[in-house]
TrEMBL record:
InterPro entries noted in UniProt: NA-bd_OB-fold, P-loop_NTPase, Ribosome_biogen_GTPase_RsgA, RsgA_GTPase_dom
Domain EngC GTPase residues, every copy: 91-144
Gene3D superfamilies per the UniProt record, alphabetical: Nucleic acid-binding proteins, P-loop containing nucleotide triphosphate hydrolases
Superkingdom per UniProt: Bacteria
MF term (GO), any: GTP binding
PANTHER family: SMALL RIBOSOMAL SUBUNIT BIOGENESIS GTPASE RSGA, SMALL RIBOSOMAL SUBUNIT BIOGENESIS GTPASE RSGA 1, MITOCHONDRIAL-RELATED
PROSITE patterns found in the cross-reference section: ENGC_GTPASE
Name of the protein in its database record: GTPase RsgA
Length: 144
């Protein structure tokens, strides 16, 4: 539990990961990643969220601060969720790189799904095919 007298400066941060009521936040000023508690009322924090967080005067059990607020999102990648309809996966995406291996077998279905997600977010994706050097010349020509 964080009280005001236990907190230092307010800073802008970027959500990296979330696990339960904790999140790893990159301090946009220093570049350091801090493990933070989430204030009550912050229900949805995902990778890419811009946040306001307060640093603790000292670390408590590996927790270095508290996320006070999540700033409005410019975009949001979602996935279907049985209970909640759509569940946010990532926020504020401005680039998508789709990386797939051609061996053992290229999955066109998953690439199509990512291309649809990129189209929905109105961003131009970059497709990277890995392990093309392991293909025979005829097969390589097909992928090129």
């Amino acid at each position: 539990l964080w009280y005001k007298h236990m907190l230092f400066r307010t800073a802008q941060g970027l959500g990296i990961t979330r696990s339960g009521q904790h999140a790893d936040i990159e301090d946009l000023e220093t570049g350091e990643v801090q493990r933070c508690n989430l204030r009550r009322g912050i229900e949805s924090l995902v990778s890419g969220d811009r946040v306001l967080w307060r640093e603790g005067l000292e670390s408590m059990a590996g927790i270095s601060g508290v996320v006070e607020a999540v700033e409005p999102r410019t975009s949001m990648l979602t996935r279907p969720d049985y209970y909640d309809g759509l569940k946010p996966v990532a926020a504020n995406i401005d680039q998508m790189v789709i990386v797939s291996s051609v061996l053992p077998e290229l999955s066109l279905n998953i690439i199509d799904r990512y291309l649809v997600a990129a189209e929905t977010l109105n961003i131009a994706p970059l497709l990277v095919l890995n392990k093309v050097d392991l293909l025979e010349a005829d097969d390589r020509a097909m992928y090129e």
